[in-house]
Specification:
Strand order of the largest sheet of chain A: 3-2-1-4-5-8-12
Helix content of chain A: 25-40%
Oligomer: homodimer
Radius of gyration of chain A: 20 Å
Chain lengths: ~400, ~400
């Protein structure tokens, strides 16, 4: 299968590209390398310096004798580039990660909110129009986020919900109340993609992904220079990855607020498994399908405790600090999202265990001298002043 | 009250500005005059040439001795301009019409879809950030559209719906399934504004407006050069206005498809009444309030028949043609939207009657020689090819 990976230089995009290549698919990666610039802008860096995309592609070729094609360009700003990629490569599946991926980054201020929605929403509009023009039968596998739903007081279904109201009923898009301009950009994408499927008969799977953790996949382990970007800073790092780095660094694990915030989580390896399952099992033509992509639900507090316990076994005495929450979010809430669809397709979750956390801690310990504490504490606040009005 | 009208050069914005000025409020209009360029781009023109905004402001001053301030600039492309306007004028209410308003325009192709969402979504993001910075206690009165909801098989509530699911319940944003990239831009706006209210405590009223018809208001009638832009072309004209022009021109009224498409409609004068009621009755601080703003529901077929009958009384023998529907939309469907909130605030609907249509026809007849038939038939199709896949 010809698989186009948009955002193939990223934390998830790069391992996905290698995974599909290893499975024997014909893979092309597209990236504008913007993530490296955004990371530099917030004075952050991955734990280990990231080799250039072209270097990693060369190493991949040397290690596996497989080739991954590459095109460097901007899908939001340069639609001619997007059209040319689709016309020439003729993808059968398009895995779309090419978005600004950080909630805090989108909340820095006006320019970052606007840039995030411009980049993500208009980039996806270009992809939809390129598909319509050049590959109307291709399958779009789009990375969304569980954060699109927010934390409603009812079970979270997968994209759609059967609503009964005044004696009538309809299957409607699940209502969305996301928590940042980044999460909002994914909500906008979902609405735009749904429309393109309804109107033009495109096929898409919207993968509403939970918080990803992990540092290694089967393919990154083939060679040190095939590693993926492991971020642990407050802007681009995800919760578990950050906690592990803090444990190794000997600084307290910083839980935002009460820590009762529940989220869906999954291992980086399961991201690859989910994307592969979605791609290998495309929807019917014209279908807009939504999968909730996570394997377990934890509160942030539970997550910190899991890291603390695993760290203790390795001799790290990790403390847990509840710091003022820089975000506006419910810190105690009902949370029961469904994830049946991917399980039904055969997803075998690699659940979080102390053993797995230990593996991460050991890996991070190899780079302990490179940890930059200054980038871990949150500096971006959802509201500058003390809260004077309740979030409702 | 200091009332800022964004999009004050438009079909609705201009009459709104005069109305608030007439009521004694301190009014400033902002516009980038883009609508005139978009109209030129599709080779259209209002029925009567539109005097410049500055000319109309001068006439308004001469006729009423009242002054309306003006700032020409682009709210999407120039955030410094937006910030300056908010800082200097310090509005207490912000009526926001400053968006690309046409569904067909947004469906011309990729560039128009992208431009529509860029202009509308990023412009509104700039407005929200300017409010946060300079006037956090102001009330945003944002023009949305009933088209955000699409045509669900359940009653359409006003912005939110109480969902019961698996024994639990929550009041959630009403699910959205709109029918064009333009309508989608309004859905994106609604999500962004809702978030800004939740996070920053801004106050907003989202007016999900139906299809507006009409040519005159109390203020436009004070002087011929105070008229508003009356569009009847296939891109910027609305259904009833277009039918009336076709009746006067002696060409068939062109109903798209079966004509069973039901929509909410309201008189231009009632738009002013609704916007005034929303503005004079602001929500609580931090509230995001949604009103459905229409007075009656008709099918497009019924609308054509109403025009046909009124036209007959004036001696016009109007035929009704069912032409191929350029849009993808349900042509027979359930439709029962609520509009209680504005009625509860005191809205007194000016319902559509044959008499009112006759008044419009007579007014249009004065300009009969200026009607350009070539711009009335739709040329923008939602899908170029014959439909091969059902819209679902």
């Amino acid at each position: 299968m010809r698989v186009l990976i948009l955002g193939g230089d990223g934390y998830l995009g790069w391992p996905t590209a290698m995974h599909f290549s290893q499975l024997g698919h014909d893979v092309m990666v597209v990236d504008n390398l913007a993530k490296r610039q955004w990371e530099a802008e917030v004075d952050g860096a991955p734990l280990e310096p990231l080799p250039t995309l072209r270097h990693r592609l060369r190493v991949w070729n040397e290690v596996t004798s497989k080739e991954i094609a590459v095109a460097i360009g901007d899908i939001a700003d340069n639609h001619r580039f997007v059209y040319r990629v689709f016309e020439e490569f003729q993808p059968e599946a398009v895995v779309h990660y090419a978005e600004q991926p950080s909630a805090p980054y989108s909340m820095i201020g006006r320019d970052h909110a606007v840039d995030t929605q411009r980049n993500n929403v208009l980039g996806t509009l270009n992809v939809l129009h390129a598909m319509k023009r050049h590959t109307p039968d291709a399958h779009l596998v789009k990375l969304g986020t569980m954060g699109e739903y927010g934390t409603p007081n009812i079970d979270i279904e997968e994209g759609f919900i059967e609503v009964e109201h005044n004696g009538r009923s309809d299957r409607l898009p699940f209502p969305k109340a996301p928590g940042s301009f980044y999460h909002l950009s994914k909500v906008h994408d979902s609405h735009n993609i749904h429309f393109a499927c309804r109107i033009w008969g495109l096929s898409a799977t919207d993968l509403n992904q939970g918080v990803v953790y992990g540092i290694a996949t089967n393919e990154t382990e083939l060679h040190p220079e095939l590693r993926t970007a492991f971020h642990y800073d407050a802007v681009f790092g995800t919760a578990l990855n950050r906690f592990c780095v803090q444990a190794v660094a000997g600084t307290p694990l910083t839980v935002y607020g009460a820590g009762g915030q529940k989220r869906g989580f999954l291992n980086l390896r399961d991201t690859l498994q989910c994307v592969r399952l979605a791609t290998e099992n495309p929807p019917d033509p014209g279908d807009f399908r939504v999968f909730n992509q996570f394997t377990e639900v934890f509160s942030v507090g539970e997550l910190a405790e899991t890291v603390q316990q695993a760290a203790a076994k390795l001799g790290y005495d990790a403390q847990i600090d509840h710091i003022e929450n820089p975000r506006i979010e419910a810190e105690e809430h009902y949370y029961n999202p469904r994830n049946d669809a991917l399980l039904a397709l055969g997803l075998e979750p690699r659940l979080l265990s102390e053993e797995l956390v230990e593996t991460m801690l050991l890996k991070i310990a190899e780079s302990a001298d490179k940890i930059d504490h200054a980038t871990i504490l949150p500096r971006v606040r959802w509201r500058e002043d003390a809260p004077t009005r309740a979030a409702s």
